[in-house]
Write a structure and sequence with these properties.
about 140 residues, mainly alpha, two-stranded antiparallel ribbon, 2 strands
Length: about 140
């Protein structure tokens, strides 16, 4: 849920890129995200350097980076952590079968394919698709 809701928040902020801050309640309402959970995600996104937060009645949240330059892979990694489908890819020393495992190359291929797909999509792409009402699939 972190990745899904966090990316939806970034998409909402992309809709308002360059217009100033957007309040949490607006993001939560438009993207159907529970506001208390959204606040936690916005903290993570701020720490990752994707957004800035401004306090006060005219405050809210805004993208720091151009949404055309913010890759989905970066957002998912910041929100979810590793993109590896299995832990041994991140810690090969943690598995005694690393050098003899017949599945490891398969997991590596899956990770590489996932990264390739997510690298090919920007937050701006998702924003444009949402505005257009399209849920078309992305080609790899």
């Amino acid at each position: 849920m972190k990745g899904d809701y966090g990316v939806r928040a970034l998409v909402e902020l992309a809709h308002h890129y360059g217009e100033g801050p957007v309040q949490s309640a607006v993001i939560a309402n438009r993207q159907s995200i529970p506001e208390p959970y959204l606040d936690q995600l916005l903290t993570s996104l701020r720490r990752a350097g994707f957004i800035r937060s401004i306090r006060g009645p005219q405050g809210g949240h805004a993208l720091i980076r151009d949404p055309r330059e913010l890759r989905l892979s970066e957002a998912i990694s910041a929100l979810e952590g590793s993109l590896a489908p299995i832990g041994c890819l991140d810690d090969p020393d943690g598995c005694p079968k690393t050098t003899t495992c017949c599945l490891r190359p398969v997991w590596q291929e899956i990770e590489q394919a996932t990264v390739k797909i997510l690298d090919g999509i920007t937050i701006a792409d998702l924003s444009e698709r949402q505005r257009a009402g399209s849920v078309a699939r992305y080609a790899i």
